[in-house]
Amino acid sequence: MSTSLPFRQIHLDFHTGPAIPKVGQCFDLDEFGRTMQDAHVNGVNLFAKCHHGHLYYKTSRAERHPGLSRGIGLLEDQIEALHRYGIKTPIYISVQCDEYAAHTHPEWVARQLDGKPVGPGPFKPGWTILDMSTGYQDYLADQLAEILEKFHPVDGIWFDMCWDQTSSSESAISAMLEQDLNPEDENDRQTFARSVSQQYMRRYYKMVKDSSPDASVYFNCRPAAEMRHEIDCFEQLEIEALPTGGWSYLHFPTIVRYLRTLDKPTLGMTARFHKSWADFGGLKPDAALIYETAQMVANGAACCIGDQLHPRGTLDPAAYALIGRVYKRIEEREPWLEGAVPVTQIGLFAAENQARPAFSTTTEGAVRMLTQLRHQFDIIDWESDWDRYDLLVLQDYVRVDAAFADRLNAYISKGGKVLATGNSGLTEDASGLTWDALGVTAHGVSPYTTTYLRFSDEIAPGQPPTDHVMYEQGARVKAAGGQVLARVVEPYFERDYKHFSSHFQTPSDALTDWAAAVQNGSVGYIPAPIFTAFAKHGNTQYRSLVKSVLDRLVKPILRCDGPSGLEATILKQVERTIVHLLYFSAERRAVNIDLIEDIVPLHNIHLSVKLVRRPQTVYLAPEQKSLDFKWEDGNVEITVPTVNGHAMIVLE
Predict the structure, then answer these.
(1) C-alpha 180: how far from its chain's center?
(2) Of 634, 7, 38, the residue nearest 336 (C-alpha)
(3) In CATH, what number is assigned to the domain containing residue 434?
(4) Residue 425 to residues 369, 393, 441: CA-CA distances in angstroms?
(5) Does residue 425 share a domain with residue 532?
(6) Looking at residues 588-605, what average pLDDT do you find?
(7) Residue range 206-211: average pLDDT?
(8) 154 and 53, same structural domain?
(9) Are 47 and 135 in the same domain?
(10) Are the beta carbons of 345 and 388 closer than 8 angstroms?
């Protein structure tokens, strides 16, 4: 779903330790507001309470920051400064991180199984984690009530650090026993932790909405797979993903493909830092921040860039010059972003059970591959509307029981197509089928860790004429009514200490009757865990095999030449179709850090877009430069002269 959120937000961290003096003393109300306006910002998350547990507004509460002078109401002044420029100001509250509360009420601290506090320990800097089943939950509710009254009506409340925290505190153990849960059982501990999280989220959500009905509400750090079941606590869905801060460049485009199906506004959050949060003096290259924000809007999400205010209350001029350059280009493109919804053709069933998606290595491989193939896809679950999609992908380990099989059969009877891979549709030991539509008979797991794939003549053209190694162990299947598109070549023997040959895997020996890819009418099946293999090994022939099978099942709604790293997405407004093309190369420039420093332009990129009717005009946005196009058999054929990192092609 598209977003009604401000498109150009800042998350202004202000975690300021009690040893810092003169907090906020250099804050200038006019300069603060003007800097944000000049940087094209239209929403800022401002701090009422930080991880240190301190408050930054005028209050008689003891936890007000000791370095904040009595006469200073920093949050009050920030809100006034931004509201003068029409900038929204959701208020930030830290939840499970509160150093002040942890030190003054140690009985509120979450405990490990051995009774030790959850945190870094007494002699290391870091956050001690609070237990929300203790009196701390009421303490936080009192803080929230004061904030809601003092700043009424609030633009929003942004709750942070809200994961499911297990605890062996006296309070948690007592509550678990009252609910007939076993505090010594990890599954019961997780069940209790989740119930506590959902209870306090609903409590705080109600407090906010009762006070300020139009306020936005968000709880950060919730598991994406649970979001459908907690959606009533959220006004929007946000994805914190600092690529150089440990999240990687694949995290946001994976999670957004699921969350955007849940009928709530979505937002992506990166940061201006070179690395991660509170990287003072660390500035990201322009190209990286352009890519990260462009990827957000290309997937139907709004943008948020993280920063941290200096303890004295001053903004970094260089940071806001960078943010301003990036947000200026987003603002220029907003007429083609507002109300735009993703156009998708494939539903990727990324799950190991029917209820929730699994954001695993397998999912990473599937997202990488389908993105490189320029397919338009969402990540879905059991409760999704499957009929929205022309094809479903059951990736590697999806369990198909009788009810699932019936629903798949009904989907196919209405014209849907399915690609299954790995153990999807097989019994756990791969000795039988749980879904007959695969068109094979199953004969257990292959005895060989490594085998080889030989493409059939139907899909071999254009492929290197060799047997391609499959590094991951798959199932042995034979076609039973389906057409074999690839076969397995097995090695001489399984490599072990008693007999091996050369440095790596045993070479191929004999072509077998085991199928490596089968098409059975509307169903394609690859018995190897090919998406897991692609995630781990990146072998391009795995992508070629999947492409060959998919092309026989559906005609892609977008075809695009160019390098495999060129990303292409389609969004739609009422009278417009917008194609986003992104090409940015992340390079390993430091240990464990992928950096984007340069924009390398692409030239003369050919697009073919499937549309219901012929467009009247095709042009580049925001330049509104017309492009020549051809209309052939329901497809618009376009050549884009230059893709300078990010191009938007509008078919209107």
Answers:
(1) 36
(2) 7
(3) 3.40.50.880
(4) 21, 12, 11
(5) yes
(6) 92
(7) 98
(8) yes
(9) yes
(10) no
The residue assigned the tokens 């003092």 is 150
For residue range 524-572, list pLDDT tens digits in order: 999 999 999 999 999 999 999 999 999 999 999 999 999 999 999 999 9
490 neighbors 448 (Cβ within 8 angstroms): yes
- Examine residue 609 and state whether it is found in any structural domain, yes or no: yes
In whole angstroms, give the CA distance from residue 590 to residue 574.
44
**DSSP line for 165-198:** ----SHHHHHHHHHTT--TT-HHHHHHHHHHHHH
Q: Is 398 helix (H, G, I), strand (E, B) or coil?
A: coil
Spatial CA neighbour of 169 closest among 122, 133, 128, 120: 133
Distance, in Å, from the CA atom of 527 to the CA atom of 530, rounded to the nearest integer, reads 8
CATH number of the structural domain spanning residue 320: 3.20.20.80
All residues at 6 or more sequence positions from 520 whose CB lies less than 8 Å from its CB, including other chains:
437, 438, 439, 440, 481, 482, 483
Tokens coding 561: 């030449």
Q: 189 and 301 in one domain?
A: yes
Q: Which residues does 600 contact at the CB level (< 8 Å), separation at least 6?
A: 583, 585
Residues 355 and 326 in one domain: no
Residue 385 makes CB contacts below 8 A (sequence gap 6+) with none
CATH of the domain at 584: 2.60.40.1180
Distance CA 625, CA 338 (A): 20
Whether 603 is in a domain gets the answer: yes
The residue from 292, 308, 335 where one domain ends is 335
- The last residue of one of the domains, among 306, 335, 364, is 335
Token pair 């694949």 is at which residue? 250
How would you classify the pairing of strands 587-590 and 377-380?
unpaired
Q: Give the domain range for residue 479.
A: 346-553
DSSP symbols for 229-246: HHGGG-SSEEEE--GGGT
Between 74-83 and 29-38, two packed helices, what is the crossing angle to 10 degrees?
50
Are 530 and 583 found together in one domain?
Answer: no
- Cα first-last separation, the chain: 20
Q: CA distances (Å), 571 to each of 340, 525, 577, 595, 649, in order?
A: 6, 30, 6, 28, 10
Closest listed residue to residue 526, CA positions, set 504, 550, 506: 550
Residue 153 preceded by cis peptide, ω within 30: yes
Domain count, the chain: 3
Please give the Cα distance from 395 to 537 (Å, whole number): 17
Q: Is residue 22 in some structural domain?
A: yes
Spatial neighbors of 472 by CB under 8 A, at least 6 apart, are 528, 529, 530, 532, 533, 536, 537
pLDDT tens profile 317-356: 999 999 999 999 999 999 999 999 999 999 999 876 666 7
Neighbours of 396 (CB within 10 A): 28
Tokens of 412: 């196919």
Asked whether residue 457 falls in the same domain as residue 568, the answer is no
Residue position matching structure tokens 């290197």: 464
CB 289 within 8 A of CB 335: no
> Considering the entire predicted model, what is its pTM?
0.95
Distances (CA, A) of 454 to 247, 253, 339, 433, 492: 37, 32, 47, 24, 16
What amino acid is encoded at 72 in this protein?
Answer: I
